[in-house]
Amino acid sequence: MEEQQQHKRRKRYKGTHPRKFSEKYKELNPEKYQDDVKKIIGQGKTPAGMHISIMVQEILDFLQIQPGQVGYDATLGYGGHTRRMLECLHGQGHMYATDVDPIESEKTKKRLAELGFGEDILTIRRMNFSEIDKVADEKFDFVLADLGVSSMQIDNPERGFTFKQDGPLDLRLDPTSGTSAAQRLRELDEDELVGLLVENSDEPYAQCIASEIMRTFARGETIDTTRQLYDAIARALSFLPKSEQKDMVKKSCQRCFQALRIDVNSEFEVLYAFLEKLPTVLKPGGRVAILTFHSGEDRLVKKAFKQGVRDGVYREAARDVVRPSAQECYQNPRAHSTKMRWAIKA
Ligand SMILES: C[S@@+](CC[C@H](N)C(=O)[O-])C[C@H]1O[C@@H](n2cnc3c(N)ncnc32)[C@H](O)[C@@H]1O
């Protein structure tokens, strides 16, 4: 009898085109694999362990940073903006930077120290920017806030910010405190959930989505992962014509994830507190630039700056938003929704 040859499937080598976040070891070590990282950025993508800073030149042009000044970056993230602002100080002056994220802040602190920006010139605090009045004992010549989430947070499925990969439905910027999005969903009733989706993200299908989420819980099923929430949203929108469904589900997912993120991180409340205290920490003539990523944030900033000019707190404020160039949006699609506003203290 002929010996049967058993076909053995060759094990797929995952190093060349990894799909999973955890396998992207080159992107997660940008200092070590600089050439690979440059190639990825050149393709208009953000490497997994990195964040590409947005509107850097527009921000620097406006802030007009001089050696010897004192500055504050409210949203450290990957430290890209902080680094560029520090370079403008030419070793004289000081910068403070805050972030609530304990995971990424530590890595950024180490990375910036290795680049020569140690504690003599940069103080990094793990703090919410709503406590802007407690960051330093001195006032600032310039302040930057680049709101929202970093690419590192979005891309890491363990953090639960993306529906593109499965992970725990968390969405907290600081996963060590507060309530996860999964827990929040269990706490809300249907009307509260509709309100959250409409107020935070103008979700047009808020009622159908909230009803489907409640039905899911009533069946005894859970929504503890990003995939489970995606599936519930897809079921809620299954009445739409097949040709539109995929696109509509994606857009609703983006809005619903954003709405939940705003809620679990109290994003409007902390931004409001930041804007209210901001004039008290700026020196006369001090400059502030804020990057926002959705209309709710932009409305708050616009209103605060306008009111500040009316009250004589600010000498001047941006009349219109400043947008990233078409070239920047092409090179970094995450810049598309960015709006920058600025103000100068009286
Ligand atoms: C868009 S990223 C900043 C990226 C940074 N400008 C850079 O160039 O790498 C926003 C960062 O702000 C942080 N953040 C968001 N809300 C915050 C808050 N209320 N207080 C402090 N940090 C906050 C996030 O954790 C995230 O790291």
UniProtKB/TrEMBL annotation:
Chain intervals for the UniProt region annotation (Disordered): 1-21
Chain positions recorded as S-adenosyl-L-methionine binding sites: G79, G80, H81, D99, F129, D146, Q153
Name under which the protein is recorded: Ribosomal RNA small subunit methyltransferase H
Catalytic activity: cytidine(1402) in 16S rRNA + S-adenosyl-L-methionine = N(4)-methylcytidine(1402) in 16S rRNA + S-adenosyl-L-homocysteine + H(+)
Record's compositionally biased regions (Basic residues): 7-19
InterPro entries (UniProt xref): RsmH (IPR002903)
Keywords linked to the UniProt accession: Cytoplasm, Methyltransferase, rRNA processing, S-adenosyl-L-methionine, Transferase
Main location: cytoplasm
Family membership noted in the UniProt record: Belongs to the methyltransferase superfamily. RsmH family.
Entry EC no(s): 2.1.1.199
GO MF annotations in UniProt: methyltransferase activity
Domain of life (superkingdom): Bacteria
Any Gene Ontology biological process: methylation
Subcellular locations according to the entry: Cytoplasm
Stated role: Specifically methylates the N4 position of cytidine in position 1402 (C1402) of 16S rRNA.
